[in-house]
Specification:
Blueprint: E1 2-9, E2 12-19, E3 34-35, E4 42-43, E5 61-63, E6 68-73, E7 80-81, E8 86-92, E9 95-100, E10 105-110, E11 117-118, E12 123-127
Parallel strand pairs: 2-4
Antiparallel strand pairs: 1-2, 2-3, 5-12, 6-8, 6-11, 7-10, 8-9, 10-12
Length: about 130
């Protein structure tokens, strides 16, 4: 299925036709758009990069509720924590979000450091 788009590059308008390819189809050799006054060209989309591997969460793991950067860690391995205690802080877009312990126990593993980039669902630390 072909879709038509109008784009502007450096003040010059181009009509671009994009052809959806099915598996086994070959790409057209002409990848550059042509000016509006000429015929349209075929443009292929770039493949998406693979997502980074994230460890699976286990029992007692506290995971990032959003992607961001670890702004602070308020516990140490071996430390006892209570349910509802602030154990870590994430930052995204200048907004700091606390990570709260969902159960009481002892911190057995800390899997991140301050400044680490994390993705949503990534295990941060384990309370056993």
């Amino acid at each position: 299925m072909q879709r038509l788009f109008k784009i502007t590059v450096n003040g010059k308008e181009y009509d671009v036709a994009v052809q959806e390819l099915t598996s086994g189809a070959s790409l057209m050799p002409n990848y550059i758009g042509t000016p509006v006054s000429s015929a349209t060209s075929q443009v292929a989309s770039a493949p998406k990069p693979a997502a980074p591997a994230v460890a699976q969460a286990g029992s007692g793991d506290h995971c990032a509720q959003m992607g961001g950067v670890v702004a602070g860690i308020f516990v140490k391995e071996g430390q006892s924590v209570n349910e509802g205690e602030k154990i870590l802080e994430l930052e995204a877009m200048k907004m700091k979000v606390p990570v709260i312990a969902t159960a009481s126990g002892k911190v057995s593993r800390i899997l991140v450091a301050v400044g680490d980039a994390v993705t949503a669902g990534q295990p941060l630390l384990t309370i056993s």
